[in-house]
Every structure is written in C-alpha cells, then in structure tokens.
Fold each of these.
Amino acid sequence: MVDLKVQQRLIKPKIDKRIANVLHEGQYVWGREIGELEQKLASYTGCEHVITCSSGTDALLLALLAIGLLPGDAVLIPAFTFVATAEPIVLLGATPIFVDIDPVSLCIDPALIEKGVEAAKKAGCRPVGMITVDLFGRPADYSRLHSIGLDLGLWLIADGAQSFGASVAGKRVGSLACMTTTSFFPAKPLGGYGDGGAVFTSDAELAAKLRSIHEHGKGDSRYHFVRLGVNSRLDTLQAAILLEKLEIFPKELENRQVVAARYESFLKGIVRTPHPPAPETNVCHAWATYTIRLKNRAALQEHLKSFGIDSIVHYPDPVHKVAPYQKYPTVEGGCPVAEEATSEVLSIPFDPYLDENTQWLISNAVRQFVASQTY
Ligand SMILES: *Cc1c(COP(=O)(O)O)cnc(C)c1O
C-alpha cells in the first residue's frame, strides 16, 4: 500500500550512518538524537515545544493527562476515525461523544458541535473538549472549530496522526491547536521504522507537564516524582531514522500533491475521488492516503487483487459501531454521513514516489471494473 523501498534506497547510506552512530554512542534511551529531532520538528511545524513519545496513541493519552481529563468528563470526537482517537478517553474513565462528519472534508462537522455538547449533558457528563482528526491528511476546519469551542468553553486537541506536514494559511499542523498529536507509524506521512509519536504545543506549562508525564511524572531530579505518569519515550534509533526522513520530507510533501493530482485526473468521473481543498482556502493536504469511494468496494478489491494491486479499507466501521465503543453516545440523529462513508471508502496504493505509469495501471484496473459493472 505504501511502498517504502524507493524512499529507503534514497537515504539508506545516511540512515546506516546514523544507526551506526547510535550503536557507537550506546545511548539507546534519551540519546542526543531525541533533542535534535524535537528541535527540528518544532522549527518545521512552527510550534515551540515538541515532546516525542512511543506512539500516536500514547501522544493522545499524554495530551489528555496533561489537560487533566477526569471521569465524568465528555470529549467530542468525529465518528469517522481510527479507534485510537477514542481509546485514551475511555481508558481515563471519560466519555467519548461521537459527532458526525462533514460530507466533503470527512472531518468533524463544526455545525454539530453544539449538538455534541447537548448529547454529553443528556448523558450526565461534563463536556470539556474536542479532539479533531485530520482524516486522510486533510486538516479539519480549525478556524470554525476554534470559535465554536471558545463560545462553548471547549478545549481543542488535534489528532494529527495522518496530517503531519499539512497546513492552513501557512500554519502547519502542530501549531493549529493548543496541543497536536502525531504518529510516526511507518505508513504515516512521516514514518519511522517502528512505532513513535509526538505532542506539539506552544504552551510552556503544558509542555512541562507533558515532559514530566511521559517520564513517570518526573520532577526535578532522577527519582523525584510529582504526578502520575507513564513510560512513553521514543527510542534513540527511531529518532535517528526520523531525522533523515525529515530531511527529505518537504520534497516528499510536494510529490504527494503531484501523485494525488494524477490520480484525480485518471479517476475523476469514474469513482468518487477525494475532494481536494479549494485553492482559495489555502489548505495544504498531507495526503496520508488516497481514498476513493464507491458502492461495491469489496468487488473492486477482489478485481484489483487479481491484478496484484493492494487496497485497504480505512476504516470499515465508524467508531460508535465498534464493539467497545457502542455504549457511548452519538449526537442526536446519529452519524449517518460517517456510516455511509465507512461503507464506501477504499484506499489505493499511494506514496510520494508512485510513478505515473503505475498510477495509470491501477486507475485502468479501477476503470475496467466500473465499466464491467455498468453493462
Ligand atoms: C495512526 C493513528 C493513530 C495512532 O497512531 P499510532 O502511532 O499507531 O499509535 C491515532 N489517530 C489516528 C487518526 C491515526 O490514524
């Protein structure tokens, strides 16, 4: 789905050198590459503090611990996301409230936030905040969400696991919310060779808390603990690898735009292609995946498979239909837009090095399938 080999060929000697250096220095935990990576991530995203951690899921847990989420609190999240957005809320004893998505962006629908607050109150919870998800790499509608959140007294955390590199009006993901989380899972836009994640913030107080929490609630000295925390650190080896990947990331982000535009030109009118953000919105999409929509996707998957083409459903169910989350409330009226979308989406192979010929072959297989369905 995401061919990481071309990228690896480009940077293999540099990565080998970085890894050899980590082995030579022997600082497998808290090595100097951690600080170097955090600094470079901060300057790339334009936020002041970056705290690296074990995964994108942990990044969300750290953010929720830092903001002080308590049992009885409710957090609004989009119904269409990976389960990891809901998981830490439930683990902390709070309640996720599922909000339907905007049919164009597939991100949380700002017009439904007020309904989400009502659903939380009806369930006997305190609505305290919302977690937005930049699904497939497209930033949510931050300006509207901020002003609605301000009116309703909700904090906003951005789950940017799929949108590292994306931006709105020149401001990058990482600097669009009071805290932003991301994932370095290999298939994400900035992926390592294993698990990893980070939290971004420009709030010094939150940054200090996050640092402490991801080291068991550490205080000023080694065995001095001041709060409840967890162990969630990025390995030095992953930081070393990510440093080399970050070097080529800006160019890759450009390539992603080109690859996405080519799919659009090959597939438009054949299946529902993703809506790229309108130019006047000044939104840069990170294109974590290229996700098309059609009614009979299972049959298309079979057809593609017969040509040796992989495809994957991100995600087959909205989170409120996934077993451990079914007992939590949705906004009144449920989440029909998310339900329809999850029944139709199919991600096709996508990476910044996908060549035109391969894209044409994949698109042609899709076209052939759609033609066979209509006759
Ligand atoms: C991948 C992902 C996560 C979790 O990241 P991990 O690093 O795999 O823990 C969280 N939220 C969303 C939206 C994701 O896509």
Amino acid sequence: MHVRKCTRPSIVVLLLHMIPLFRAESQPPNIVFILADDFGWNDVGYHNSEIKTPNLDALSATGVRLENYYVQPLCTPSRNQLMTGRYQIHTGMQHQIIWPCQPYCVPLEEKLLPQLLRQAGYDTHMVGKWHLGMYRKDCLPTRRGFDSFFGYLTGSEDYFSHVRCHPLPSKLTRCALDLRDGEEIATGYEGQYSTELLTEKVVKIISNQDPRKPAFLYVALQAVHSPLQVPERYMAPYAFIEDPRRRLYAGMVSAMDEAVGNITAALRETGLWNNTVLVFSTDNGGQTLSGGSNWPLRGRKVSLWEGGVRGVAFVASPLLQRPGTVSRELLHVSDWLPTLVGLAGGTLNGTKPLDGFNVWKTISHGSASPRVELLHNIDPLFVDMGACPGGGEGSSREDRRWSSLGFNISVHAAIRYSNWKLLTGYPGCAVWFPRPGGPNSTRAGALKPVMLFDVESDPEERAEVSDSHPSVVEFLLRRLNHHQKTALPIVFPEEDPRCDPGPTGAWGPWA
Ligand SMILES: *[C@@H]1O[C@H](CO)[C@@H](O)[C@H](O)[C@H]1NC(C)=O
Ligand SMILES: *[C@@H]1O[C@H](CO)[C@@H](O)[C@H](O)[C@H]1NC(C)=O
Ligand SMILES: *[C@@H]1O[C@H](CO)[C@@H](O)[C@H](O)[C@H]1NC(C)=O
Ligand SMILES: *[C@@H]1O[C@H](CO)[C@@H](O)[C@H](O)[C@H]1NC(C)=O
Ligand SMILES: *[C@@H]1O[C@H](CO)[C@@H](O)[C@H](O)[C@H]1NC(C)=O
C-alpha cells in the first residue's frame, strides 16, 4: 500500500504531531544525584528500624539497594572521585580535605561530570555543598560545568545562619557567610534551615525544567554533617533516644528524608519522573563523634575500615530492568561518571584515564560488576582526626616478610580485590563502636602493620587472616606498589592568609 502524500495531508499532520512524542521517548533520562553528607551505615531505616526514613525506604524498595558499594572516607575525596571518575592518587588529592584557606582545587585540566553531561545536551544544576576548592573563580561550580549553583563552597557551616567559622593562618577565628547564588554572595536566607532551603531551590529548578531537555541535578545536601542542628518538630519521633547528640542527628536524618520525599514528589508532579534516574548516596561513613553510627561495621568517617568507606546508596527509577532488588556487586563512587555519561549517551572524550567503570548493567539488569578491584586510598601523610577512645594504635613494628615487595607498609593504605581487603599502616580509628543505646563493648586490640580480612564473610573486620593467606597478602602488596607508582605527588598547600573575607565578607575566591 502506498501512502499518497499529496492527497492524504492528514497523515503528514498526524506524523508531525507524533514527532515530539518520539523525541520525548528517546530523550536520555534526567539524572538526579542526591549526595548525603556523613550519613552512616546504621542511620537509614532499612538498616535500622529506630531511624525513620519512610521516603528512603520506599524509594529504595522499588529501586535497587547497593549493599556492596564504596565511597571515600571523607568529603572532598568522595566528591572529587564522583566528579572525575578517578582515584585520588591520580589527582594529587590523596590527603584529607580542602580547608577554607588552602589555595588549590580539583585540577583544572580534569573534565568533570557536569561538563560531560552538558556536552551531551543536558541542563546542569547544582544545589548544596561544593568542597572541591574555590580559591580562584576558575574553580567554582559555575566554571566547571554547572549552568547554575546555589549553595556553599566550604565543607561545613551553621544550618541556619549559613556562617562558617575557621581559624585564619594568623590564628584569628573568622566567622563569615558561605552561601552563593551562582557566583554572587546570597544574602537574606538567615534563619532558613539548610535542608529546607536547599530543597526549596531544587523543587524550583524542577518546576522550571523544560521537559524537552534532559536535566542533571546534583543535590549535595548539608544533612547530616555536624553541627547538630534541626528544627524541633523533626526530633518528635525520637523522644526515646537518650543520647542528645543521637536524638538531634536522628531528627536531621528525618528532615533529610523529607527533603528526598519533596524532591521526588516534584519530579512526579511535573511528569519528569518517568524518565529520571535518581541516585542517592552518602559521601562517607558516619561520624560517631557527631551522632552518626556505622554499627556493626568497624571504624568511622576518616578511617579506611568498612565503617568509613562502605556507603549507604540506592538507585530509583522507572527505567530499571529489575526494580525491587538488592545488589551485592562491588561498586564504587568513581563508577558514577562513566555510568551516568553512558546513560546520557555522551562521550568520555576529554577525560583522563578513568578508574571508574560503567556499571549500569550491574545496577539495572543485575549482571556481574566489571569491577573486581578497588583501591581505597594510599596516603603517606595520613594523621587521624578526632579523639579515638581506646582505638588501637598503628603498629610501628617492621615486618621483614614483606619488605622485598617494594611497598612501604607503614603507609596508610587499603585495597580490595574480590572478597579480600588489605590494610597497611594505621587505618584510622579502629573501634567497633557499639549500637546506639546498646551496651558499650569492644576496644580494638593491637593492630598489625599488614592486615588482611575476608570482608565478604567478615564485613565487621574481626578475623585478621594475613598469616594464613601469605600469597594473597603478597599479591595485594604488589597491587598497592603498582598503584603507588602511578600516584601524583600530594598537593596540600599551606593556608593562604589572603583567604580572609574580613569581618563583613563571605568565604570565596581570593586569588
Ligand atoms: C517539604 O515540603 C513541605 C510542603 O511544602 C514543607 O512544609 C517542608 O518544609 C518541606 N521539607 C523539606 C525538608 O524541605
Ligand atoms: C511520561 O509522562 C508523561 C506525562 O505524564 C506522559 O505523557 C508520557 O507518556 C510518559 N512517558 C512514558 C514513557 O511513560
Ligand atoms: C575528542 O576531542 C578532541 C579535542 O576536543 C577532538 O579533536 C576529537 O575529534 C574528539 N573525538 C571524538 C571521537 O569525539
Ligand atoms: C614509610 O612511610 C612512613 C609513613 O609515611 C614514612 O615515615 C617512612 O619514612 C617511609 N619509609 C621509607 C623507607 O620511605
Ligand atoms: C558508654 O560509654 C560512654 C563513654 O565512655 C559513657 O558515657 C556511657 O555512659 C556508657 N554507656 C553504658 C551503657 O555503659
């Protein structure tokens, strides 16, 4: 049968009407990435029924929960790897975080996730915490791929005043605003609770989004990092918690859960949801000094124990092939860049050699992870941060058995291969912090300079097995040595006195 074009104009009209529909269906998905701050393993409802997170529980129950997923033990490093798809040793940022007065940022020659998504035709918006450097304007989110930015540049601040206090190199403690809309200082938000303020901004972006263009929303919530602050009403369900810090923290988690509920409601109301992939992830383990808990995992934020690096995360999307499943495949925060750029139909052209893998098939279809190895970190300058109650000090003992393999086992490092995890040097606070409200328990015993755990069968890192598996130890030390040879020199500059915003200014670029 021939379509008689000239005599059947109605078909042409009909086809023209259908074009936007076809385009809508083939349009790459919206990507919403919600990053929680210092959110611990034991702090989500589906790991701990004492904590009320109905939105996170329901979203993840109809999505894919990632239960063998890793992040870096600190804020800047996880964000750095999310944005670059590369290990910290490959950006020179293997040590600590960027402090407010340090003159450096993620190297400008790195091509960041929002740049790649923008190149793939996305609108790119960021709301929340940057913490990837800001000493000069070229380092700001708006110069690194985001069309818009509303949020703060340093690592933490007051939830209501949006003021950050930090000692200057002169030792004077400076308290100044850290809140920006684009590159401009944002005033007039004093008193608005950060979790609600940031959510309001995200909801506005969603309402204004042109549905014919795919969007990338990076929502880096302040919650639930210290200081412990939350409007009273969020603490109401937690009157039974005796420890006041834990009670405040639990309230902050509830506010964050409500934020995620509001964001997904806005996506549904605008009709964007049916073509959206939402990722929820923490940036590192919980900080036990500030109400967080990683029970029953060992250690906490900053450490390379599982409590520092095994992260809460899930993906929710109508586009998942196997919704309502739990993934136990090995995944890492550096995997998001190739995964999300792949979903966007974009190209990785211009990136430096990636350490991340495209893991969409693993998440969506349940296939085996392409990742068998994970370098947690190598940081020769490591020093612990915060008091560690009876936590087992690093061993300064030499262990001659391993000296011929080339890797300095006094160096703070950890690597995962399949079920095995090897740690060297002092991994950070080694305590098994007790379950909140439960009886106090274990002190960590003396540590060895080289420690091996089968974290598949022993996720609590209780049975150290290096003596019975010397060939595994040797293999992993060789792998560490191999990685260390590819490391860039550490960049961790002295604080620059010119960072001082003065008594009335705001933290921001000074160079
Ligand atoms: C969620 O939305 C409700 C209704 O607009 C609002 O009252 C509440 O403050 C919002 N919660 C957060 C955390 O933004
Ligand atoms: C997505 O939602 C819009 C608006 O509700 C609807 O028109 C469209 O058919 C939906 N697309 C799919 C693939 O479900
Ligand atoms: C990759 O980028 C370079 C430099 O921007 C360009 O010359 C080249 O054509 C690009 N290649 C592909 C496959 O897009
Ligand atoms: C091994 O690493 C430790 C800790 O970083 C350092 O103090 C020591 O000098 C290093 N030893 C050698 C031989 O490089
Ligand atoms: C547990 O230890 C902490 C700090 O040492 C102490 O404040 C608390 O009272 C102890 N709790 C119990 C149940 O022993």
